Q: What sequence folds into this?
């Protein structure tokens, strides 16, 4: 070697120090906490989708209620769009939507109360 004399002890000490630092685990940043708004928004979208489907079924199953329920359906479709939810496709009338207009309105009112309580 030209002008540099390295002892065996110095070489082994350097190698050991290099090995220790190379094996030290790198600190990873802690994962970000999930955004609580995502879960709230998702639940609100699910409720709005359910209400939109219910209104569609109610109107389909009881056409005499169309003039009364259509504005409320439009409000829920608007809410769903504002929340970023996909529109609900047209549904076919199910037995749950069938019945007298009073029974259909009672089911819609009960669903509205349940959704409102879930928002609280």
A:
């Amino acid at each position: 070697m030209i002008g540099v004399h390295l002892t065996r002890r110095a070489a082994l000490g350097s190698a050991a120090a290099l090995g220790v630092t190379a094996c030290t685990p790198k600190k990873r940043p802690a994962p970000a906490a999930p955004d609580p708004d995502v879960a709230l928004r998702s639940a609100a979208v699910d409720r709005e989708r359910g209400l939109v489907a219910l209104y569609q079924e109610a109107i389909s199953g009881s056409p005499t209620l169309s003039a009364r329920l259509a504005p409320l359906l439009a409000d829920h479709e608007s809410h769903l769009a504002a929340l970023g939810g996909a529109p609900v496709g047209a549904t076919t009338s199910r037995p749950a939507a069938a019945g007298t207009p009073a029974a259909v309105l009672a089911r819609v009112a009960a669903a509205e109360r349940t959704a409102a309580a879930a928002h609280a």
